[in-house]
Amino acid sequence: MEIWNREFYGRLAAGADGHVAASEYVCVDHQAQYIEGGAADTNGKLFYKWIVWTCFLNGIVAVKTRLLLNEDQPTTLQQMTLYQKLRAEVSTLTQKTSLLENSKLTEIIAEDKRLLLNDPDVMTQIKQMSLELQSLRQKTAQLEQESTQMKLDLGSAKTKVTQLETSNSGFGSVYTRWGRKDCPSNGTELVYAGVAGGGYYTHTGAAVNYVCLPHDPDFIQGDTPGGSATIYGSEYQDNHFGHNLYNNDVPCAVCRAVTKSSVVMIPGKIKCYGDWNQEFYGRLAAGADSQSAASEYVCIDHQAQYIEGGGVNDNGKLFYKVGAKCGSLPCPPYYDMAPMSCVVCSK
């Protein structure tokens, strides 16, 4: 597995569970600063301590910049073809130059040296041929320079291609596979596996987003327990996601599509558009409309798994089946309470 670089670490924060407004979990640097002159208690978007957990940012959600060849740079095949063409032209011009120098001009001079010296028409022809020879020499020199430059460009292009072929570590895009402990077997690597979590489903100020909590957490030495924001595990609230999954805890896997730079989740589809690649497909999930805590839509893998020993009904962040509702949503192509599918695609 590739080694990831830590960008910073700190303490997880979110809005308080009892607040009306929803929030999300964010990572506050362990050497947090403040805005000068901003000490007045005017509230706004608030950051509360998160109970017992810490966080780290190891570039997991960073999109590594994908290296590309300059689009204006000719391909290797084009360069080789043009180079061969130029060499052929150089050879032809060289032959013409040799012919003019060693054949025609010699014949004229040999025919009658006195005539060459005294006949104005012949002298004009000689001058014209001399100018043509000079022009041909210049073109030959120019083509040789272009040929040399093409060789350099070809070498540079080969070097860039080699760098791209050997630098897969520079590519990659990250996504979470909800409901699974592993990543698809399509060249995708596992960053880490964990358990899905989030805010409690009845807390009005709970963080909105689902998060994938690792099995091997780290804590900052010296921090004391407590916090107005809390984070819980998660449970399936419907056998819609798989056989006998109701009330079972939800696993998750953070995956890196090594050779892809973009990832998108498309609701209502099980296949990707165009030349996008399917990472996985499944069923759309979210919190229930009637619950106090806000949530978000996520894609549960169609072959969902569960956490062993996690069948106790402890609630927490809950996953419910999502149905389409006609009205502002056009029907057809949708129909009322249609069970929503989803697919995660990469490119």
Automatic annotation (TrEMBL):
The UniProt entry's GO CC annotations, sorted and at most eight, read:
extracellular space
Entry keyword set:
Coiled coil
Q: Which residues form a coiled coil?
A: 126-153
Q: What is this protein called?
A: Short-chain collagen C4
The organism is Mytilus edulis (Blue mussel)
